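Notes to self after the Tuesday call (sharing in case useful).
The group wants a holo model before anyone commits to mutagenesis around the pocket. I volunteered. Ligand is heme C. Logging inputs and output together so the record is complete.
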Amino acid sequence: MNVNRLWSIISMPVALLALWPIGPATCAGDIERGHYLIEALTACDNCHTPRGADGYDFSKRFSGGAQTFSDKTYVVRGPNISPDAETGVGAWTVEELRAAIVDGVGRDGRLAPVMPSDSYKALTARDLDAIIAYLRSAAPVRAPLQAPQQRRGEWAPHPMPGAPAAFDEGSLADKNAHGLYVGSLARCMSCHSEEIDGAPDYQNRLGAGGKIFRNPAGVAVASNITSHQEKGVGTWSDDELKRAITQGVARDGAPLRPPMSTLSKAHFSKMSPDDLDALVAWIRTIPPKE
Ligand code: HEC
Ligand code: HEC
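Result:
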């Protein structure tokens, strides 16, 4: 081997290192893990990535969602969370990003509860940093937030029972805790619990369904996924539950409606077998409700 070639092999990693952004903007998180969490569980794209005819438009990933969410107290859209410094969150510190994701606090104060921080509170410190690392690895997209955008509320947090704060890694060795962790990050109960005054009634109606979703495809009512024998999924087999979650198919084989079908196909279909097993085992522990 000639000396020039040898030198180019040695210098290549050095050159790559020089290209790697080092400084306050980087985050030590595990990008691969962050990718998995966002793809399979937390589904940030659902509100922060625009859609084309065939689903998400990944050429503009994280540049802001198409939907406008409104309630008595807010009119909001999923903002640009790509690393663009001006129109996205490229200039935010890691601490600011952590606060937005798990505390629901943005630069201008409390975020409207559409941003599901309550479901993300369970994130282990490592998984939270992994998500931030993946966000920071995405391409910056310039896209200012579209109006209207109003917030007039002091929304109290409504954390998932058993998941009000960061889990520690060690606790996930327990299958039930692992299932609760997956279920919390995937927001199952925030949709599948009946609401009182715009907030899920986890105390009395955990998993009982009843929340109504209106979208261009029509109206869907979240199902009862408690272990109730007739009203819930108590008599479903593990395979039937897994198929509903990962393929968006009802027990009788009919396709489920959005938003369940959309989340199943774009996200939950990517769940690891371990996460899916733990999730199904945990769903079976939800006390039956009519
Ligand atoms: C169900 C919809 C939804 C999902 C899912 C969602 N978000 Fe949000 N997010 C929002 C909305 C809406 C806002 C703006 C709320 C407001 O303006 O009060 C927001 C705000 C934010 C902000 C603050 C940005 C700013 O400019 O103020 C960050 C950061 C953020 N989300 C990150 C994430 C990450 C990371 C995930 C996934 C782990 C995620 N979001 C999942 C809807 C969502
Ligand atoms: C954004 C809201 C939303 C999220 C998040 C969500 N679901 Fe659903 N889910 C629904 C709706 C709405 C339906 C009813 C769809 C229909 O009627 O076609 C449904 C249907 C189902 C069904 C079918 C039940 C039946 O009786 O046919 C199962 C099982 C289910 N969801 C489990 C889950 C699990 C487990 C998770 C978390 C991994 C989850 N869902 C996350 C809204 C959601």
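Two things stood out.
The chain has two domains: 26-50+58-156, 158-290.
The pocket of heme C (ligand 1) is lined by residues 42-44, 46-48, 69, 76, 78-79, 81, 89, 97, 100-101, 106, 111-112, 114-116, 120, 131, 135, 151 (CB under 6 Å).
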